[in-house]
Amino acid sequence: MPSLGRLHLITDTRPGYDPLTVVRAALGVAGPELVVQVRVSDDATDRETYDLARRVRELCTPAGATCLVNDRLHVALAVGAAGGHVGADDLPVAAARRVLGPDAVLGATAREPVTATRAVAAGASYLGVGPCHATTTKDGLPPPIGPAGVRAVAGAVPVPVVAIGGVTAATVPALRAAGAYGVAVVGALSTATDPARATAELLRALGC
Q1: Where do the Thiamine phosphate synthase/TenI domain residues begin and end (predicted)?
Q2: Nearest to 176 by CA among 150, 149, 145, 155
Q3: The dihedral of CA 143, 6, 27, 2: what is its sign?
Q4: Angle, nearest 10°, between helix axes 19-30 and 195-206?
Q5: Is 138 marked as a binding-site residue?
Q6: How far is 156 from 35, CA to CA, in rounded Å?
Q7: For the chain, how big is the Rg over CA atoms in Å?
Q8: Contact 160, 127 (CB under 8 A)
């Protein structure tokens, strides 16, 4: 399994946002410390997802960064991504592991220790934990768990915990102190005036 970067960028495909421009800017600063998770809206077609994921993977490979695909694991396989990520409403972790194979990166979403330990036992190689703080980039999320919630999960599992949800450079130190291996962001980069500078600030906060 490839080593996992500490800064995870989730593509923002909402109208008016250009995910590839943000990916290029972040890659230029973060290189191998960047994991790009291709996430699309529910109404995006498989072809649209494939086209975006293929271009992201082509950008990631020469930079030594990791490309993952959220939910649509067949697309991950089709574009040669390093793996995928599944949430609570996606394929079960064990099924996702069978689809991707034993060597792929497989992330799973968790917000408390019981779910987290089950996901790891089923084959998750890292966990996305949150939402840590309030966020507007995804609807229907449960209440934030804060650094204390991250600490509870990180103390229960042996795999990297990646904190997600309203993460900014200012909130990273507390999340790292709580045991987060890294952080995942959407709006912190997609809405930044200067995504490259914002990436550098996040990397400094992560200690990279």
Answers
A1: 7-189
A2: 150
A3: negative
A4: 50
A5: yes
A6: 24
A7: 15
A8: yes
Q: What residues contact 62, with CB distance under 8 A and at least 6 apart?
A: none
Alpha helices per DSSP H over the chain = 19-30, 46-63, 73-79, 93-100, 113-122, 146-154, 172-177, 187-190, 195-206
The domains located in the chain, with CATH, are: 7-206 (3.20.20.70)
pLDDT of residue 11: 97
Residues of 12-43 as b/e, b for ≥16 C-beta within 10 angstroms?
bbeeeeebeebbebbbebbbbbbbbbbbbeee
> Coil, strand or helix: which one is 187?
helix
Is 61 labelled as part of a ligand binding site? Answer: no
Which residue's entry shows tokens 């271009």? 55
Chain Cα centroid distance, residue 108: 10
- Token pair of 37, please? 């998770």
Of 120, 167, 121, which Cα lies nearest the Cα of 175?
167
70 belongs to an annotated ligand binding site: yes
71 annotated as belonging to a binding site for a ligand: yes
No. of helices (H) and no. of strands (E), the chain: 9, 8
Q: How far apart are CA 104 and CA 50, in angstroms?
A: 18
Q: What is the pLDDT of residues 118-149, one digit of tens each?
A: 999 999 999 999 999 887 666 677 888 999 99
**1 pLDDT band (50/70/90 cuts)?**
low
- Is residue 117 a known part of a binding site? no
168 is in an annotated binding site: no
